[in-house]
Amino acid sequence: QKEVEQNSGPLSVPEGAIASLNCTYSDRGSQSFFWYRQYSGKSPELIMFIYSNGDKEDGRFTAQLNKASQYVSLLIRDSQPSDSATYLCAVTRNNAGNMLTFGGGTRLMVKP
Amino acid sequence: EADIYQTPRYLVIGTGKKITLECSQTMGHDKMYWYQQDPGMELHLIHYSYGVNSTEKGDLSSESTVSRIRTEHFPLTLESARPSHTSQYLCASSELWGLRQFFGPGTRLTVL
Questions:
Q1: Residue range B40-76, pLDDT digits in tens
Q2: Tens of pLDDT along A53-108?
Q3: Which residues in chain B touch residue A23, judged by CB atoms under 8 angstroms apart?
Q4: Distance from A106 to chain B by nearest Cα, in Å?
Q5: Which of A42, A81, A98, A104 has the fewest other C-beta atoms within 10 Å?
Q6: Does A98 contact B104 at a Cβ distance shorter than 8 Å?
Q7: Which residues of B sit within 8 Å Cβ distance of A?
């Protein structure tokens, strides 16, 4: 079992719809969770982070965390073709300071 | 403007050559990282550093070496490049106990 699991996709949604990206993790000691967006051939860009159970909203993006279920998700409202990218989930490692473990990413395609 | 830089952006080189990938940051961060990422695959940590004169190996065994003589500079060296080293190399930085990592643009290395 991978430490951070994501469905590789592609996840295809129509423009204007809500895209829902999911991530599960195995380390119960993980405390902080990050979503990075990576366009093809580019480097990852941090778009959201969440530390506490519940929802955190930033513009069109909402991160949701459920530590009991070891589950974190990213919702993108009013999806735009420019949101088409690979979304990487990253979690901090227990007892490893600020080291991150990355998932393999979910490829999102937003169709006009 | 605070940023993180990598050079070269693209490198095509023959087997057996020695190469150095450069990474510099003006963000004032103590911690720096090198990741390796094959197309469509997850990021693998290969080296990291807590500060000057600190270097540690990451999760993925790598034949590369790193040095940290200056806070802002974290070069990666391959003494003898091989086709198996063909990949994208991403440099990142963070505050010493900060959780957010910021990535450079990456170096795409091809070894023929």
A1: 888 999 999 999 999 999 888 788 999 999 999 999 9
A2: 999 999 999 999 999 999 999 999 999 999 999 999 999 987 666 788 999 999 99
A3: none
A4: 10
A5: A81
A6: no
A7: 31, 40-43, 45, 48, 90, 94, 97-106, 108
Residue numbers in B near A102 (CB within 8 A): 42-43
Are A100 and B59 in contact by the 8 Å Cβ rule? The answer is no
Closest residue on chain A to B6 (Cα): A43
* CA–CA dist A77, A91 (Å, integer): 23
